[in-house]
Design a protein that fits this description.
alpha/beta; single chain; about 15% strand; 9 helices; two-stranded antiparallel sheet; about 220 residues; globular; six-stranded parallel beta sheet
Length: about 220
């Protein structure tokens, strides 16, 4: 049986959890995903434990169904290879710090000029605009900063980090959802789009009914377990 994204080509330049999870969900729907890693060790998740025979469980889980290659994007020759690949791709996923791809002349404006049908998905910690755009953000930081930890733990105890990296993973799911919307837009108009997602926006969206309770009657959410 044909899968919905059969024939769709995805370039996955992302690392660790959120971006790779987005690309993995697209691969589950049939997209052909090529994961492009740096030449100086690749995705940090490769070093995470547990490992067996040099393979990380996390890396394997989040990079299922993908082909792999390495490129040093600081090299103009390698950057030119990526531009050529982007010219033939449908989707690109990246989660470098804000401005990194633009400094390499590989941002949305540059690549969409080569391929106007490209859907370009950028995943960041705090979004691409605003005072924290240049800051890095990992799961524990985002659970604390967003307020998720304030509703996690025993009612009389301290705030607790959820053991699952659910903000990262959910950001990947939301990113895949947004990419699918952009592909539908392209089907209707012939034009690609830039998709922007962030860990903070994901966390805030997951706290929506807690926020609504406060806005309605001033109820301050408590830790629920």
């Amino acid at each position: 049986m044909a899968l919905p994204l059969d024939g769709i080509k995805v370039l996955d330049l992302s690392r660790v959890l959120a971006g790779p999870n987005c690309a993995a969900f697209l691969s589950d729907l049939g997209a052909g995903v090529t994961k492009i890693e740096s030449t100086d060790g690749g995705d940090e998740a490769r070093s995470w434990v547990p490992r067996k025979e040099g393979e990380s469980a996390t890396f394997l889980a989040l990079n299922r169904n993908k082909r792999g290659m390495t490129l040093n994007l600081k090299s103009e020759d390698c950057a030119q290879i990526l531009r050529k690949m982007a010219g033939e791709a449908d989707v690109l996923v990246e989660n470098f710090r804000a401005g990194t791809m633009e400094r390499l002349s590989l941002g949305y404006e540059e690549l969409s000029a080569i391929n106007p049908r490209l859907v370009y998905c950028s995943v960041s910690a705090f979004g691409e605009t605003g005072p924290l755009r240049d800051e890095a953000g990992y799961e524990a930081i985002m659970q604390a900063y967003s307020g998720v930890m304030s509703v996690t733990g025993e009612p009389e105890g301290d705030p607790v980090r959820c053991g699952l990296s659910f903000i990262d993973l959910t950001t990947g799911i939301i990113s895949a959802y947004a990419v699918l919307g952009a592909l539908l837009h392209r089907e209707r108009t012939g034009q690609g789009q830039k998709v922007e997602t962030s860990l903070l926006e994901t966390a805030v969206s997951l706290l929506s009914y807690h926020a609504e309770a406060y806005l309605l009657d001033g109820t301050v959410p408590e830790r629920l377990g």
